[in-house]
């Protein structure tokens, strides 16, 4: 790890839903080339953080900088143009569009010049997608939909990929495949990944570094291995929950 | 293969249960009919209220519901055995039409272009006027409105209950500018569209954050506001009295009248009001086709794809970096623009407009056309518009029914009843509209290779 400026820096971010505070001052660093995960229970504010980074909702206090630029008050569609892509919670595939069209929508922020080339890469990474290209998104299985959701985000050629609970509701074998693909992307393409997960065991094993969020604040941070070995983390997120 | 699939033992058809359910439905109908149909009140010559007994109408209603419910129940029971007892159309009819949609589009277009000639040939010069005007032009106006609203509701998924507002803006723009400033139809047609698009944008801004029911309510209110302003701002719009004597469109400068400079005289023809009607017919046909062409093209462009993505999932759109604000505003304004075109045409055709023409019922009608047709389908809209508008016009032609039901029978009175019935039937039979499958707008280049792969694996 270099000591240079991180790719994404979140400083003292507070996010509200109306009067209710969801994030109570969060600090996070994601350096280029890292996989960083954030684990936490339901309702801890993990997804809110991810959405706040993407500008919807916007942080009321604090700053978010990406490549040295302040993106705190930037609208989502401009953030997407800077090279941040998001695979939202619950997959959110366009159900009546074909997989091919879904992937095209992923490239909406760019011109389609490299589309075919990128599609090739995706098909190598997720061979299942290749079989399903002409099928409607809504007819895919959960695992396939998750793969399409990640692939769709990748079509924008992001530098930073935000993944919100990619393992949600999936069979352990599929989760393994998906996490394997994320590791592969990080290793070969140098893609920086920020991953929000409830599936703490897999996420921490995959990640270089991790954060633990409880009730809108970061309570712990460290390398993936450190957190995996931490007795508190084990007690709260791992024991009995190992998949 | 059929031989390899073991079919589970089909449950015996339960006639008794079906009869029971049909009987129950008939009972409910009977209960509802007593206050609504059984007793009619009217005033007689001495201004005394008289109670009319109409038990035979009640009997008809109950019988219709009983038989209808019985058929539906039997059909549903048949469905469990993978075959239906009552099928309205042979299996695969829609798939057949969809496979040959290119052919049928050409056929339909050919029919529309030759329609005035066919009408003249079949009914003569006198009779053709009614057919071209009441059926041709009237239906095409609604087809065009349906296709315009289809951009907003069908493609972008924004439920708009006030579409008639843009129709009104277009109509009044043409009427006022043509009457007060004497501008020509060909200049005002695009201008009316632009003004309507501008109002579409104005409506778009406040409703950007709304979806579904809330959006529907605000658009409904917007439609009413436009109408109420037209009624109450008398200096501007002449209120309830409306605007009359609106200049008619000319044939590129040649008016349609009996004078020496008129269309008939210039082209050496005998004067007939039919020429104007035929001209209007082709004009609205061209406008409707323009609407269809533009919405087909837009679907393949990024903005059209963004509309469809927005209809599917707004949050996903945001996370993909699509500017949802612009996407919604373009949908509203382009949809409104076509409404404005149609409005300008309407006022030019009628020569008289008043707020009466722009009531909520019109919005509901156009929306029903879009929804019944299957949201997003141009063919569906065209079929639904033809059935609904053509159907209500056809009711005027059913004078022979008087022979059966007696001389007081007026089929046009049953317009709304049939309209409602048709909606209920379609929503039961095809809940997503007549044509509910969506054609993909983008294909892989090596389409054939992929599809044969899928067949091999049993997905094709």
Structure description:
The complex is a heterodimer of chains A (243) and B (460). With 243 residues, chain A is of the alpha/beta class. Chain A has 10 helices and 10 strands. Helices cover 37% and strands 26% of the residues of chain A. In chain A, helix 7 links the parallel strand 7 (160-164) and strand 8. The longest helix of chain A is centred in the last third of the chain and has 18 residues, at 172-189. Chain A is globular. Chain B starts with 14 loop residues before the first helix and ends with a helix. Chain B has a two-stranded antiparallel ribbon. A two-stranded antiparallel sheet of chain B has the order 3-4. Chain B contains 18 helices and 4 strands. Classes of the chains: A alpha/beta (243), B mainly alpha (460). At the A-B interface, helix 2, strand 6 and helix 3 of A face helix 11, helix 12 and helix 18 of B.
Give a brief outline of the structure.
The complex is a heterodimer of chains A (243) and B (460). Chain A has helices spanning 46-53, 76-81, 99-106, 115-125, 127-132, 142-154, 172-189, 200-206, 224-229, 231-238, and strands at 8-17, 20-30, 35-40, 61-66, 69-70, 84-87, 160-164, 192-197, 209-214, 217-223.
């Amino acid at each position: 790890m270099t000591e240079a400026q991180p790719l994404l820096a979140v400083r003292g971010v507070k996010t509200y839903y109306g009067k209710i505070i969801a994030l109570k001052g969060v600090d996070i660093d994601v350096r280029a080339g890292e996989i960083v995960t954030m684990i936490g229970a339901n309702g801890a504010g993990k997804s809110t953080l991810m959405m706040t980074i993407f500008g919807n909702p916007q942080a009321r206090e604090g700053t978010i900088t990406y490549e040295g630029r302040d993106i705190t008050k930037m609208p989502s569609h401009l953030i997407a143009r800077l090279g941040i892509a998001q695979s939202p919670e619950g997959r959110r595939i366009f159900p009546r569009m074909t997989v091919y069209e879904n992937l095209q929508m992923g490239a909406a922020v760019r011109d389609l010049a490299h589309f075919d080339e990128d599609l090739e890469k995706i098909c190598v990474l997720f061979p299942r997608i290749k079989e399903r290209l002409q099928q409607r998104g809504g007819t895919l299985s959960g695992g396939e939909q998750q793969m399409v959701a990640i692939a769709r985000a990748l079509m924008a050629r992001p530098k930073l990929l935000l993944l919100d609970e990619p393992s949600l509701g999936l069979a352990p074998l599929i989760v393994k495949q998906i996490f394997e693909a994320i590791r592969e992307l990080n290793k070969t393409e140098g893609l920086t990944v920020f991953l929000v997960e409830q599936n703490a065991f897999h996420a921490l094993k995959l990640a270089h570094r991790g954060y633990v969020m409880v009730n809108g604040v970061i309570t712990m941070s460290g390398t993936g291995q450190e957190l995996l070995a931490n007795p508190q983390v084990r007690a709260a997120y791992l024991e009995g929950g190992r998949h | 293969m059929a031989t390899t699939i073991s079919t589970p033992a089909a449950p015996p058809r339960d006639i008794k249960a079906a009869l029971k359910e049909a009987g129950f439905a008939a009972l409910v109908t009977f209960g509802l009919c007593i206050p609504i149909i059984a007793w009619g009140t009217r005033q007689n010559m001495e201004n005394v209220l008289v109670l009319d007994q109409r038990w035979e109408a009640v009997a008809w209603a109950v019988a219709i519901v009983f038989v209808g419910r019985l058929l539906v129940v039997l059909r549903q029971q048949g469905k469990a055995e993978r075959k239906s007892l009552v099928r309205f159309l042979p299996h695969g009819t829609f798939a057949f039409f969809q496979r040959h949609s290119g052919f049928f589009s050409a056929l339909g277009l050919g029919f529309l272009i030759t329609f005035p000639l066919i009408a003249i040939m079949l009914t003569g010069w006198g009779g053709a006027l009614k057919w071209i005007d009441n059926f041709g032009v009237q239906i095409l106006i609604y087809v065009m409105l349906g296709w315009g609203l289809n951009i907003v509701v069908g493609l972008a998924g924004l439920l708009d209950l006030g579409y008639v507002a843009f129709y009104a803006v277009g109509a009044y723009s043409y009427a006022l500018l043509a009457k007060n400033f004497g501008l020509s139809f060909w200049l005002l047609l695009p201008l009316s569209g632009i003004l309507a698009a501008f109002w579409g944008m104005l409506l778009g801004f406040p409703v950007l954050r709304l979806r579904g029911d809330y959006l529907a309510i605000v658009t409904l209110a917007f439609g009413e506001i436009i109408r109420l302003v037209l009624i109450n701002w008398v200096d501007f719009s002449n209120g309830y009295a409306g605007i009359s004597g609106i200049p008619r469109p000319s044939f590129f400068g040649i008016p349609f009248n009996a004078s020496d400079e008129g269309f008939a005289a210039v082209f050496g023809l005998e004067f007939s009001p039919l020429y104007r009607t035929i001209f209007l017919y082709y004009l609205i046909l061209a406008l409707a086709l323009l609407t269809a062409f533009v919405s087909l093209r837009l679907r393949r462009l990024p903005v059209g794809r963004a509309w469809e993505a927005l209809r599917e999932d707004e949050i996903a759109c945001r996370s993909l970096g699509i500017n949802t604000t612009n996407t919604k505003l373009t949908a509203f304004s382009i949809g409104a623009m076509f409404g404005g075109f149609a409005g300008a045409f309407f006022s030019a055709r009628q020569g008289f407009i008043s707020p009466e023409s722009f009531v909520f019922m019109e919005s509901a009608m156009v929306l029903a056309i879009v929804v019944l047709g299957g949201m997003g389908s141009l063919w569906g809209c065209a079929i639904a518009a033809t059935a609904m508008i053509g159907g209500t016009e056809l009711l005027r032609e059913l004078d022979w029914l008087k022979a059966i039901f007696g001389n007081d029978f007026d089929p046009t009175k049953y317009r709304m009843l049939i309209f409602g019935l048709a909606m209920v039937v379609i929503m039961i039979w095809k809940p997503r509209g007549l044509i509910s499958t969506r054609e993909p707008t983008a294909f892989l280049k090596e389409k054939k290779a992929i599809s044969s792969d899928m067949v091999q694996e049993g997905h094709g």
